[in-house]
Amino acid sequence: MRVVRESSSQPLTIDTRRNQLGAGGEGTVYSVGGGLVAKIYKEPQSRREKILAMLANPPADSSTPDHDSIAWPLDALLESAPPGRFVGYLMKRVENAGGFREVAHFLDRVQKRPHFTNYELHVVALNIASAFSALHKKGYVVGDVNDRNILVTELGLATLLDTDSFQVPKQGRGGCFRCAVKTPEFTPPELQKVNPRTVDRRVEHDLFGLGVLIFQLLMQGNHPFNGSDDNGWSIPTRIEKGNFPFGRKQRPISPPPQAPPLSVLDDELGKLFVRCFDDGAGNPDARPTAAEWRRSLDHARQQLATCKANDHHRYPPGGACPWCRIRRDFSLGNGQGLDYFPDAASAQIPLAKPARGKVLGGSGQTVSGTFTSRRSLRRPPPLVPPVAPWSGSSSSSSGSTSTSTAGTGVTAPTGTGSTSSTGSITPTLGQLAWKGLGALASAYLNNLVAGSSHGQNSAVQDDIGAGVWELQRMTPVPPLTPGPLLLGTQVNLLGNGTFTGSGLLLQMYVQTTCQLSGQWEYNAYSNRLKFAVMVNGYPAVYNEELRILSGSSGQFQLRASDGSDWALRRQF
Predict the structure, then answer these.
(1) 132 and 82: one domain?
(2) Which among 43, 197, 263, 570 has most CB atoms closer than 10 A?
């Protein structure tokens, strides 16, 4: 494919077979060299005016020099042949960065960013707030705030992605190009039941999602509406009801036992969270602005004290180290305490390379730090899943096994070994654990396959299809859960009814990865998904159904057979 830059008529050649980086419902992203990428739309003319408006009025975040905190369009791309119609846009490629979860979520961070202390988390939060502030000054609204569209470098620099989905003002004629999607876990209560295509977003709507991101960074990956309750409410329901369990309203939702309290934070930051989620539940204007977050985070990170017992423990001055207290008071049941910031000697995994200078948004300062591993402890042994029987009848033969369940239309993968069952079977603990694993894997398989069909009552929209999907567990993991438990997964769903992918597995309090594969089938009339899955090449054979509760535009809420809720989101 040959295109030209609109500003200079410079020709660019795109190798669509070799240089594809990702594809979605709107278009495909390709590498074009020189640190640039091109997004080519499937229906470009409907996007042209919005991209031109963005190019005419770019935001300016000067807090992080020599780093683009917002992946903004650089130039429009046109067909190289006459009439030279608009086809997409050019932007910078984000290099050497990982996802937001690698930093915010405790298990991910300990494995992938073990040198990040509470100081670095404040830096990341500060830089994200700085990017939001720059957008809001120009009248832009992110709209679909979520943790998937943020990348973070080893220096704590953050970049906001998917900027062409932002709400963009129409230049000179009023109105805006709306953001047509939302992520319920980051959506304020007043918009929970509102179709995003029908409303103009406001800055205060963004400020709720920004508060969620900052909370997750500073509170070890906990969502501000995580907690324990007897109602079975999902996170969006809790948001809608305004039950912020870390604040004043701790009933009927109470904070998760393993989560740190707000007292681990600087007093001013704790007050901002209360304003955002307690006061802001009924009064959106009470939510702190991005500039307020930036100022408070910058002040708080400068005041952090270093623990004498563990220099990875950084905390607000004026009291004892709260991270040492949590490690002392919260036992993992294996002779160790829960340490959110383990030092080199007690780290459970090999440590990464030393961190370089960290660039601080809003301060213009660069500080340097080093982190050296004194030893690397061994990872836990690989998990070998047991073979769990399908419910109902099954057949077996020595050497290899192929199991099916009458009336389901789902066939289990073939593997070595043998299984047999007659009547009811009492499952082992391992079998129950792997049934839960399969439930998580199945939630990623919310797609149509050959032979399935839409029913008129189906809640699933036509934009569900083969592709790459991400599933994230939304029901909090019970405290002191050693696993195995799948926390999330990404799978590539194929139109022939098979899938491959990888999952994040909690095992003995440590996150590891596992490989998933198998077969899947979706019944659009009942909104139920049946699947058979293999984990690390071993068949975890059982019948499992996953119920789709609601969703559209590539984002869905699902419920597994164990009652846990999951968020399913299209990636490509």
Answers:
(1) no
(2) 570
